[in-house]
Structure formats: structure tokens, C-alpha cells
Amino acid sequence: MKRIVILGAGTAGTMMANHLRHHLEADLWEIDIIDERTEHHYQPGYLFLPFDIYTPEDIIKPIKDYIPRGVNLINDSIDRVVPAENYVQMVNGDRLRYDLLIVATGAKIAPEEIEGMKGEEWQKSVFDFYTFDGALALRNKLREWEGGKLVVHITEMPIKCPVAPLEFAFLADSYFKDKKMRDKVEITYVTPMSGAFTKPKATAALEHLLDEKHIKIESDFAIERVDNEQKMIVDYGGREIPFDLLVTVPTNKGDEVMARSGMGDDLNYVPTNKATLQSKNWENIFVIGDATNIAASKAGSVAHFEAEILTENILHYIKGEPMKDEFDGHANCFIETGGGKALLIDFNYTHEPVEGTFPFPGIGPLRLLKESRMNHMGKLAFRWVYWNMLLKGVHIPFVSSNMSEAGKHYD
């Protein structure tokens, strides 16, 4: 019997386990999935936790509930992968041999990369919301915070869900309005980019919203350090931005397992063919989700589209057939803008977000790059879709893996 090993039981790894078990004969292929954790976290929910929109129970479920029958879940820690010899070395000394390996080890924050970020003010006046612990601590802080200078900051790109920091700023504006204390809070959005987003048309729309909500933007800010004593962030040019409450997105990095295995780049992301999702260095290794170094957004929707295409390519690979260069970098993201509204953007490697309708041309019901109540409902509904369809490898009706240009206005 041959063996597929999946590293990581997060979003991407769980989807691949479901897809492959459905397509591969159990008496020919054994599938193992390894994760040291026992809880699966709905990471988009971290954004809502600080504002008391979601509770911890909304975003945490047992991992085992989403692993299909016939897939062996191994709750243990990985020491390293030895790709030259086709085995995974476990911390407990076990060696797990594989015929085909799928790397779905994700990405995580690394606040230690910036001087002073994880200093004495960490989880006192300096917070992240990209971890459950960080989002929960920030929720408790916001419940009793009396106002001042709120700085929402991105350290560097790439990060998981590139729009999440903007969403946090918009939701903070709405949150403080609801608490009748918006006039006591000065919100500043600080980014290393030259604008609010990576794509021009989306940047224009998002910067208009920032201005409308009286959120100041500080761009081209390359942070050098966090000054805990003076409560300010300082960039390499000496620019200083004071804060009373700093909500930062630290450097994002791939898993340390990839570094120990000699498989990652400087940020521990695995060099990956952007169209086939095959490792650039080992033909029987495939990479998906946040673990890749491809120039696509690190988001759940991207992992979903990747999983459908990667499943087909793995089946082709197993049969000795040519793989399809099909993944186009498709990303589909709701952007919460506060006040019960949201934007929707749909883009890929070559096409930036533009206005239009989705998923049906001319009908919608969702509008692209425009605020609407319907988009907000779509964002909230995604949590149900995630637990009941996405993780289980169920195709989402009317949404194709590759981006459709129909219904979009490119003029």
C-alpha cells in the first residue's frame, strides 16, 4: 500500500484530506495527517472576537470532527522532513515514510522579529489579533479601554488575509461609535505599502473609506522598533508614531519545521510552482495554502480554490499524466467596513479587483468593490460555509476555482 502524508490539519490540510479520501481507493492509498494541535480554529473569526461579535465557541472546534473516516489523524509533533529519503521524522523518534507529501503547515506571527514588539507592553498596550490568545486579550482590553491613540499597524508583507488589518480599523470605528466614544479615539492605519492595499483600484476605494471614517493613513512605514517606554513605533527613517493602544500585525513566517528541513526560504515558505502547486525542488511534494511562497493571498478562499486544483493534479501525478497549470491565484475576499456593511473583492495573479457583480453577471446578488448590507451578510454566512462545506471538501455552488471575468467592469 502507498502512503500520502499531509503536514498540518488546518484549513488547507483538512480540505486535502477530505478531497483525497473521496477520490483515492482506501485499499491502495493510506492517508495520514499530522498536527500537534487538537483544536481547529476558524481563523477569520479572530477579527470578530475583539469586538464581541463572535465568542470563542464560534471559532474553535475539535480537529477530529473534520477529518474523514479512513484518514489517520496523528496528534504529535514533527521534528523535520527528510525529502531526499521520503520520510517525516517525528519528535518522539518515529519515522513516517511517504510516497507523496502535502505541506500544509500554514503561517504564524513572529513578533520577536521586531525589536521591542514583544516587550513589556505586550498584551498590555501592544496586541495582535492574528492568534486566538491575542484576539481574546485584545477583547478584554477593548471592553475597558477609555480611548486615546489607536494605531493599527502592519509590519511587512506577505501576511495572512491582507485585508484583515483594514477590516480591524473599520470595525474599530464602528465599535467606538456604538459605544458613544468615537470622539475619544484617534485611529491611525500604518502600512509598509504605498497605499491601503496592493492593487490600485481597490486602494482607491479603501482609502476613500478610510478618509470617510476619519481614519488617518501613514504609508511607507518600515518599522525598526517598538519603543515600550515612550509608547511609539519608530521606522528606519526615524519617523515616530505614538500610541496608547497598538494593534499590530507582526511579521508572518512559515512553520519552523520547513526551516529545520531545509525546505523553506528566508521566511520559511516553501518554493512552489504557482500554477501546479508542486514543490519546485521535489516532484513528490506538493504545497498548499499559507505554506507556499506563491504571490497569491494567504486566505481561506485561496486555499479552497487551490485544494480543488491540487486534488486534480495529484490524481494526474499518481497516474503518470501531465499536471495542469491551472491555478491562477484566484482570491475572493469580503472586507468588513463597519456599520453592517462590507465590500467584496475578486481577483487573481493578473486581474486586480474591479467593480461588478458576483457570482452571476449582471445579477449578483453580491456587488464587487462596493459597500453593501448583502456583502456583510455574505461575510457572516461564510462561517457556516467554512464549517459545513469548505473543510469537508464540498464544492461551493456557482464559484469556480479559476476567476471568471464575467460581470466585472474593466473599463
What is the strand and helix layout of this fold?
Layout: E1 2-7, H1 11-23, E2 29-34, E3 39-41, H2 56-59, E4 60-62, E5 71-74, E6 78-82, E7 87-90, E8 95-97, E9 100-103, E10 107-109, E11 126-127, H3 132-144, E12 148-154, H4 164-178, E13 185-190, H5 200-212, E14 216-218, E15 223-227, E16 232-235, E17 240-242, E18 245-249, E19 252-254, H6 256-260, E20 285-287, H7 300-318, E21 331-338, E22 341-347, E23 356-360, E24 364-368, H8 373-390
Parallel strand pairs: 1-2, 1-9, 2-5, 9-20, 11-18, 12-13, 12-18, 13-14
Antiparallel strand pairs: 3-4, 6-7, 7-8, 10-19, 15-16, 16-17, 21-22, 23-24
Q: Which class of secondary structure composition applies to the elements?
A: alpha/beta
Query: What separation lies between the terminal Cα atoms?
Result: 55 Å
> Based on CA inertia axes, which overall geometry fits?
globular
Helix content: 10-25%
- Mean pLDDT value: 96
Number of helices: 8
In total, how many domains does the architecture comprise? 3
Content of β-strand: 25-35%
Number of strands: 24
Low-confidence runs of at least 5 consecutive residues: none
Sheet with the most strands, sense and barrel status: 5 strands, parallel
CATH superfamily of the largest domain: FAD/NAD(P)-binding domain
CATH topology (fold) name of the largest domain: FAD/NAD(P)-binding domain
CATH class bucket of the largest domain: Alpha Beta
Radius of gyration: 21 Å
CATH architecture title of the largest domain: 3-Layer(bba) Sandwich
Widest sheet: strand ordering: 5-2-1-9-20
